Amino acid sequence: FPFCTFWSMLSLYLLPAKNGEEPTMQFLLEVVDILTNYIRKTFDRSTKVLDFHHPHQLLEGIEGFNLELSDQPESLEQILVDCRDTLKYGVRTGHPRFFNQLSSGLDIIGLAGEWLTSTANTNMFTYEIAPVFVLMEQLTLKKMREIVGWPGGEGDGIFSPGGAISNMYSVMVARYKYYPEVKTKGMSAAPRLILFTSEHSHYSIKKAGAALGFGVENVILLKCDERGRVIPADLEAKIIDAKQKGYVPLFVNATAGSTVYGAFDPINEIADLCEKYNMWLHVDGAWGGGLLMSRKHRHKLSGIERANSVTWNPHKMMGVPLQCSAILVREKGLLQGCNQMCAGYLFQPDKQYDVTYDTGDKAIQCGRHVDIFKFWLMWKAKGTSGFEQHINKCLELSEYLYTKIKNREGYEMVFQGEPQHTNVCFWYLPPSLRGMPDCPERRERLHKVAPKIKAMMMESGTTMVGYQPQGDKVNFFRMVVSNPAATKSDIDFLIEEIERLGQDL
Amino acid sequence: FPFCTFWSMLSLYLLPAKNGEEPTMQFLLEVVDILTNYIRKTFDRSTKVLDFHHPHQLLEGIEGFNLELSDQPESLEQILVDCRDTLKYGVRTGHPRFFNQLSSGLDIIGLAGEWLTSTANTNMFTYEIAPVFVLMEQLTLKKMREIVGWPGGEGDGIFSPGGAISNMYSVMVARYKYYPEVKTKGMSAAPRLILFTSEHSHYSIKKAGAALGFGVENVILLKCDERGRVIPADLEAKIIDAKQKGYVPLFVNATAGSTVYGAFDPINEIADLCEKYNMWLHVDGAWGGGLLMSRKHRHKLSGIERANSVTWNPHKMMGVPLQCSAILVREKGLLQGCNQMCAGYLFQPDKQYDVTYDTGDKAIQCGRHVDIFKFWLMWKAKGTSGFEQHINKCLELSEYLYTKIKNREGYEMVFQGEPQHTNVCFWYLPPSLRGMPDCPERRERLHKVAPKIKAMMMESGTTMVGYQPQGDKVNFFRMVVSNPAATKSDIDFLIEEIERLGQDL
């Protein structure tokens, strides 16, 4: 194919078209070239983290980047341009200075795993069409349960499309365990059921409460200490209060690594109360579960082996590409019992292989994306020990940040003492606010500092870090480290950048 | 790097490691080489669809393929071997003779889109970290709503992790529309609510009924005609019956393209009843929605513009790689109202851009995988017209199959008349069963034919097609065509193969 003819070709000349093999290979290699260039630049600190534009700018079309869909096909050449533009105006979440989310970094092995997964393009719901992936999932879940500390790695589990859905599974399974008739008869078959979770916990417990028919009024928020950890006495008081009202306390969520403070609830004390009052204990370790891989840090989750279910997102602290979240359940059979509908047209009992490997009926999904392979491959490539090193390194970096700013002029920590996870929460005070006594005006001005610095950061594209208010605390920065590319120099850069952008506010 | 040293290297020498760029590029190109070889072979009819092994065989480790995870890292060389083995023992869902699922085929543009998506490795929940993808999703959903026929493409929607979750959204949103207080107070705030769906519909409506607290008893199954289409008179009778019992009919699911028969429920007649009785109308077009792209076939969904919500999975009939499912809602604001929790730490109102583009609070998920890009890119590459051609071609192929076997010796159609979708349902009768009068013994023997043929097919690895019983009908084959690689010769091959394997049963 002469070059000019080739790239003006349409996609219909690619495989499965006749003689489509050569153009297909040429096209894919061109795409890979775009991707590898992107990867190269992502790890290069002289590249910006993002090239910010407002929604209306992108919608109007910048330099010919047209997002609108049309009736007629585009040439392959234009498709490649679209790919380049998509990456150009996106955010480099693998950049060493991207600290904005709990999920960050770009693991090369995980990436290769994801490329393979999309090439295999199959579905987890039966062994028939995903034999290798189904077994990988089973073995990996068992390994995770062993690490949680359940004897022999016994129990059950499934990979779900994210921590919120994993937490939703935990509530469903708890309800099924105590009130199996709800599956058939609905919530009216049960008394008024109460779920408990801390005011610092992830909003997905409330979302689950709303979706599953409990009602958010019946999701009781527990008080936390100044470090964001639940106060067990408050839990017990609220359990007793609920019982006095005639309600039935069903479920407690203990957070292992809260979103903002990175706090770990005292699982053992909560477990004692769950035993005392016969309640389901779920541990939301979406963010903190990764610390189980570290002999140095896993004590922060001590008691997790007493949980009835655990959410653990390898796509957060363990650096696995999105999406990769596991819900683990200690008692076997509950997931299946809770969700199965035995649709004969999907799960034929008379197949030639052992159909207990068909996992589809455990899920609330039917088709289910293959989330396991990238994780399995990373585990092979790093070993358990590699994950441990990664986690220890991230925690060291956040300790470095904490030590650097705790007594630095212009910084105030949101809570005192060393962070439990990699979350470091702080206010930056521009010189104009320093020395001003605490008063409504100061609070109001301080509230605007982080958003302004963030906006300037994004416009200059140099780094990204999150901010938010929490309870009665005005906007503060929440720094997190999960990116394997980050080093001390990037932490230093972040601080310099905050000071550069914020000094005149 | 000398070759032998290089491949015995560990992944920790890849980026972001110092001097990691060269080994990273070398490693990724090696992976791409494995993948492109796989793709080449997938489209080559002399390659098997699968190389079947039982679970215990794979678990024991075949030719050194070890699925177990260990503490110590593997070499890059071994990682590449793992990748090859994973593909070797998997199923080629893009093979021209893979007909096993509603999702099949391997679209090269979609694949490139997925490779890019995983390289970008971001999350849909805010514009901040996925500016381009968020806008693509918005524009594509609008286009889909226009195609559904809602004036000006108005309304709302979101991509979810599959049709079952999309259907679950529809039930949640319907409940929120009629009984918004359930979000706060739980199901006890509503009367006994009834959901209706046909006995041929997808089991996800029942799963949603169980999960969301309605109870499967309150999911009433409607009778179908012999073609698998719901009988509207049965719906009305059951609505009246429910009302007489004091229950409240809330929601009707009309299936557009049922899983087994490919039947399209009469949407207009159902819509009339929904209007008459003030109920929510959902159309589950997970499988049949794609036909909206074809001027020739879209009449099968006529009335869909009267629906309150629609599920439509581009990952099925439109050949988009898994996962890609949309839930469309006609009334704006409901999705947000139903699901939002306004977590200040996730969705800061004081950002520098228009935060109405932050879609996270509409979802039951928090992090959400980028499912849009591959679909958007395919639409760019094919145009609306390209999807239309693909759909028409698949329906022509199934018509070819239907015409070929309807009067062929040894075949019996499960229902009479031309299929509405690409589903062709049939029994193959081995010579030993032909001419035998209908009796329990014949039924019992016929029930075992499809599973036996399927088992032999999988063991010989030549092709794959699904089978199942339905109601009182014993196991039959369900052929579906969504694979763009399939041609008439592959249909011929399937029939020959069934006869070759089944003749002596």
Word description of this protein:
Chains A, B: It comes from Scleropages formosus (Asian bonytongue). Chains A, B: Pfam families: Pyridoxal_deC. Chains A, B: Its EC number is 4.1.1.15. Chains A, B: One of its GO terms (molecular function) is pyridoxal phosphate binding. Chains A, B: Catalyzes the synthesis of the inhibitory neurotransmitter gamma-aminobutyric acid (GABA) with pyridoxal 5'-phosphate as cofactor. Chain A has 505 residues and is an alpha/beta fold. In chain A, 41% of the residues lie in helices and 12% in strands. The model of chain A has no long low-confidence stretch (mean pLDDT 96). Chain A has helices at residues 3-7, 21-42, 55-60, 76-88, 108-120, 131-148, 163-178, 181-185, 204-211, 232-244, 267-276, 334-339, 372-405, 440-460, 488-502; strands spanning 98-99, 156-160, 193-198, 219-222, 248-255, 280-285, 309-312, 325-329, 411-413, 424-428, 464-470, 473-479. The first copy, chain A, has 15 helices and twelve strands. Chain A folds into three domains: 3-92, Alpha-Beta Complex (Aspartate Aminotransferase, domain 1); 122-379, Type I PLP-dependent aspartate aminotransferase-like (Major domain) (Aspartate Aminotransferase, domain 2), CATH 3.40.640.10; 382-502, Aspartate Aminotransferase, domain 1 (Alpha-Beta Complex), CATH 3.90.1150.170. In chain A, the strands form two sheets. A seven-stranded mixed β-sheet of chain A has the order 2-8-7-6-5-3-4, sandwiched between helices.
